[in-house]
Amino acid sequence: MAIETNDTTIKEKPSNFLDEIIQESIAKGETRVQTRFPPEPNGYLHIGHAKSICINFGLAQKYGGKCNLRFDDTNPVKEDVEYVDAIKRDIHWLGFDWAIERYASDYFDQLYEWAVALIKKGLAYVDDQTQEQIRETRGTVTVPGKESPWRNRSVEENLDLFERMKNGEFPDGSKVLRAKIDMAHPNMLFRDPIMYRILHAEHHRTGNKWCIYPMYDYAHGQCDSIEQITHSICTLEFDVHRPLYDWFIEQLGIYPSHQYEFARLNLTYTMMSKRRLLKLVQEGAVMGWDDPRMPTICALRRKGYTPASVRNFAEMVGVAKRDNVIDLGKLEYCVREDLNKVAERRMAVLNPLKVVITNYPEEKHELFTAINNPEDESAGTRQVPFSREIYIERDDFMEVPPKKYYRLSPGNEVRLRYSYLIKCEEVIKDAEGNVIELRCTYDPMSGNGSSSDGRRVKGVIHWVSVPDAFEAEIRLFNPLFTKEDPDDVPEGGSWEDNLNPDSMVVTRGYLEPSLKEAPIGQPFQFERVGYFCADTDSTPEHPVFNRTVTLKDSWAKINK
């Protein structure tokens, strides 16, 4: 079966409840699909927002509709153009574009007029109580709230006071505008919610035009209505807000946008709280919002994740109605799968052991052809220099090997990737008995993948040429927290106690010369090691590479 809408044929994919809702609407003849992504510009987006982006933009694309980008800029104290620009960068990086760009502040005049209309209908009033007094009189789930002494002001007095609030006659916190609903309502959000508060603060777009600002519950549904959003998709914590969303729209008699909720994304070993992430940044526990250990989209980008891997992850975890926790390994699986297809291969030695090939001519220097990506023939080949002295990984040598050990050991032979067979003849140690160098011989006739007598070996190891390789700083990243649930702490403990002291391990490595010109962020597979990319800190004088992900999941095994 295929769905036809706006002359666009949509191939059927596994449905989720949001798909089913849209398909039911289409079956009734309501073919227009208009979504929106409404971030507050008070911080950087994280992987949870990426899922929401993929859902909102993805559904619009799938059903031939449109998705708006609307910034919920109703709190000038916490918002900044820096975050606006970062959010737009992140959306574009993920591969999406919006139909129109809007801000809640675009609608401040209309929102004010609608608030006046509610006052005239006797459905809103100015309250002189403080925020603390309002909280104290709201009641509990089992105890009804108490009505404000200012609840029965006349319409004329409320109109006068609200206009004077707008004109800046009152200080911050001295008055609020509240909806007049029901102080005994079982949904506590209906107990005369605040619609406007006084904030004498400069707004990043409207400057000092306004000193009263609408609350989320008042502004959000009306902004959706103005844009005629057909499917206002939010995370599950907003489901209790939906009746209030509908109430304002019904009382104003405006376009009936409707809200739908899905489960937010929770990842193991990951903290999603924007407030806590900000604390990590401010206290220097991480290098910034784009620190590769952070769950922010800009951090994933810096770490070397691809847009496709994040989109594939969002599709893999799907859309659920109940909160659950997703294994971090699924995200890493998605990036491995994508990088295996697109990342060119290179050789790098991160824990070097020097090898001298004693029968290789000292003056000789040659090039071997290496495959850039066996998964992609169009990636072509490159030339890798070879010389008498090379580095291999220290883990690829064992002086006393166990049975079925196929790497280098005394008297044993291995193949150097793309190059010759070598045999370990002598082990050089320092005064403390540490192995510092190997003396090997090579088979001059084995450079074409065979050998002088047709013999074959099982072990193949990577290497770099000592005179040609360059040294680089290597940053090995692990999860930021030691526990799957960072909040899993004993009584009196703090989530910060679970910060992983080994979340970033800095080492030095030797890389083949073709990596000297590696563009910032371009992914590479360091053969037999993992996926890496040049960091934003990298310079020609001080190259820095980040590990995006290991070739295999070692974290889960180590921490069981």
UniProtKB/TrEMBL annotation:
Residues 33-340 form the Glutamyl/glutaminyl-tRNA synthetase class Ib catalytic domain. It comes from the Bacteria. Its EC number is 6.1.1.18. Pfam families: tRNA-synt_1c (PF00749), tRNA-synt_1c_C (PF03950), tRNA-synt_1c_C2 (PF20974). Residues 460-535 form the tRNA synthetases class I (E and Q) anti-codon binding domain. GO terms for cellular component: cytosol. GO terms for molecular function: ATP binding; glutamine-tRNA ligase activity. It is an enzyme of class 6 (ligase). L-glutamine binds at D72, Y216. GO terms for biological process: glutaminyl-tRNA aminoacylation; glutamyl-tRNA aminoacylation. It is found in: Cytoplasm. Keywords: Aminoacyl-tRNA synthetase, ATP-binding, Cytoplasm, Ligase, Nucleotide-binding, Protein biosynthesis. InterPro entries: aa-tRNA-synth_I_CS, Gln-tRNA-synth, Gln/Glu-tRNA_Ligase, Gln_tRNA_ligase_bac, Glu/Gln-tRNA-synth, Glu/Gln-tRNA-synth_Ib_cat-dom, Glu/Gln-tRNA-synth_Ib_codon-bd, Rbsml_bL25/Gln-tRNA_synth_N. A motif ('HIGH' region) lies at residues 39-49. It catalyses: tRNA(Gln) + L-glutamine + ATP = L-glutaminyl-tRNA(Gln) + AMP + diphosphate. Its main location: cytoplasm. ATP binds at residues 40-42, 46-52, 235, 264-265, 272-274. Residues 343-443 form the Glutamyl/glutaminyl-tRNA synthetase class Ib anti-codon binding domain. Belongs to the class-I aminoacyl-tRNA synthetase family. Monomer. This is Glutamine--tRNA ligase.
